[in-house]
Design a protein that fits this description.
The protein has about 170 residues and is mainly beta. It has one domain: Jelly Rolls, CATH 2.60.120.10. The chain is about 15% helix and about 40% strand. The strands form three sheets. A six-stranded antiparallel β-sheet has the order 1-2-3-10-5-8, with helices on one face. A three-stranded antiparallel β-sheet has the order 4-11-12, with no helix packed on it. The chain has a three-stranded antiparallel β-sheet with strand order 7-6-9, with no helix packed on it. Helix 1 packs antiparallel against helix 2.
Length: about 170
């Protein structure tokens, strides 16, 4: 976290997020992360998470497990972030909002990128509206370290239903 704080202090852009991705990869490869230390569910699903570290500035490091049985709902974090797969394979879909955001409760989104991430692979995203995504383990659960610019467990998120064209706001847990 101290090294990530130094990176963030210089400003957060694609290059800084790549550097944080390198730090996460280093931590993932160290095998010091206990994968069975997951504390709570997310999104009203079997996805589980635990906060490993968080500071007053909002920088937050989490460990997350994405089950293979079902994808997370399409959601945002209202923050930039970087994720590194520790174990398993993660199907990560990045979504892009295409409507003008003027109709309350309505949203049109499309898949912008789909990737399968393996152990050591890193994915990053910018601040809203570039943080809309969904994830699912492939064949078995996928475990990731995720660094956020703000604690995503504080406040609400937007949850998108691409089939019905709706968006709702609610807490993550």
């Amino acid at each position: 976290m101290e090294r990530a704080r130094r990176v963030v202090a210089r400003g957060v852009d694609v290059s800084a997020r790549e550097e944080i991705g390198g730090l996460l990869r280093e931590l993932a490869r160290s095998r010091t992360i206990q994968l069975d230390q997951l504390a709570a569910g997310l999104h009203g699903t079997a996805t589980a998470q635990t906060i490993l570290a968080s500071d007053d500035g909002g920088l937050t490091l989490m460990l997350v497990r994405f089950p293979h049985e079902a994808a997370t709902p399409v959601h945002d974090h209202r923050s930039w972030g970087v994720a590194c797969v520790v174990e398993g394979v993660d199907r990560h879909l990045h979504w892009r909002r295409t409507d003008d955001e003027t109709a309350a409760g309505r949203a049109t989104i499309v898949v912008d990128e789909e990737r399968e991430l393996h152990a050591g692979d890193v994915v990053q995203w910018g601040d809203p509206p570039d943080d809309i995504h969904s994830q699912q383990g492939v064949g078995a659960a996928a475990y990731e370290l995720v660094c956020f610019g703000r604690n995503p467990m504080n406040g609400t998120r937007q949850y998108f239903d691409p089939h019905n064209g709706t968006v709702t706001e609610r807490p993550p847990a």
